[in-house]
Amino acid sequence: MNRSDHPHFNPWLALVVVCFGQFMVVLDATIVNVALPAIQTDLGFSDTSLAWVVNAYTLFFGGFLLLGGRAADLLGRRSLFIAGVALFSLASLANGLATSEPMLIAGRAIQGLGGAMLSPAALSVITTSFEEGAQRTKALSVWAGVAAGGGAVGLLLGGFLVESLSWEWIFFVNVPVGIGIVFAALRLVPNSVQEGAMRHFDLAGAATVTGGLVALVYAIVEASSWGWGSPKTLGLAALGVALLGAFVAIERRSPAPLVRLELFRLRSLATGNGVFLLVAGGLFSMFYFASLYLQNILGYSPLTTGLAFLPVTFGIGIGATVAEKLIPRLGLRPVLLTGMLVAAAGLAVLAATTKVDGSYLGIVGGLFPMSIGMGVTFVSLTLVATTNVDAADAGLASGIFNTSQQIGGALGLAVLSSIANSKTSDFLGGIVGKPSFLDQQEALVSGFQTAFIVAAALVAAGTVLAALLLRRRDVARIESGDTVAAVAV
Questions:
Q1: Are 83 and 106 in contact (CB under 8 A)?
Q2: Which of 94, 307, 325, 437 stands the most exposed, by the fewest C-beta atoms within 10 Å?
Q3: The whole model's pTM is what?
């Protein structure tokens, strides 16, 4: 169906509707972090299993993101958008009613699947509703602004809901919003489809990549309990690697693969996504550990914790603006490498200032420079990962980059949470007799410190990788102004 065939079609109204859907998804990514201590206390999550409240969502979102984009093109963008909103809202309701660990983790996974259907369909509505040029650029700027705003509102709204009502309301709030979005989409969003496309869904590819990542992350998370060299850890990790190997084999033979592997022959795309896997693993875990530290060690309320993260939102905005201004003047590579080094330095400061008797002033001294570096890094890597790509593959390149972000974040949190829990256990194991409350606090802080150090090391490793692999000719089109990055949220 052509967009002009829709009797009520107005591209700007359609933009508002799909942005509300994306706002709901982005808000959920941060709102949960503030509620983690309350969820842990109420449902009895262990320190090890708590990470699955975040990772179950992230893995299913990232694992099915590319399949969701293809389904939107073939089944109709509005149809998949509405289905994604409905599934996301129903899963949110189930999460709010959850009474056990397995119920909440399963609901979070289904919520991630709904997000993987909703998000690419929403972006496709924008790119098919606005002609390329100034109008589409303006629409995508609104889209990116909604994403940044959703992150900030999520932290504040999460704190307010948990403190004034209960943690269940961070999920219940999605239900009436989702109902409103569905009715608005039926009236205002056209159900466009990709004409002449091969109607093939790479379900085997989606299943193997998601199954492989879940197995690998589960092995990493449980390694602190089972032991890194235990048969269960090694066996599950081997299963994950085997499934990911099967995914590569399936993609090579599929008539319509989720990912055309030949795209990775582009040095810029391969380097951008490889670096972002490392960077996302380090930076995204910061919210998880910082939220636990502020509430469990410094005694902040959920609402105060949300307010404490506001400098991060401002810092990301500053970093993104700085990158936009400096890349044409100084070149992409020096701006990217500087941004990553600033982010790594901020994480190192966090590690140094995270103490049992620490203060917010010390924490914000690490959070703010880290967030500025984060903004510079995200803008620069988005440009790198989407340059030199043919117009027909621009959507796929953006989808791969979004997937790298989600998968990198999930794997990074799995590794860091496992390392932090092992450090905490080792600290407590070295105490003679029953640990005091202060001993337990110091043990937790030692785990948080180690996590921030490893996160800084991941970002630093990404800096080295970018310096070694990214050549000037790989980013020549960016520096000449001949390319515009696809928006990656």
A1: no
A2: 437
A3: 0.76
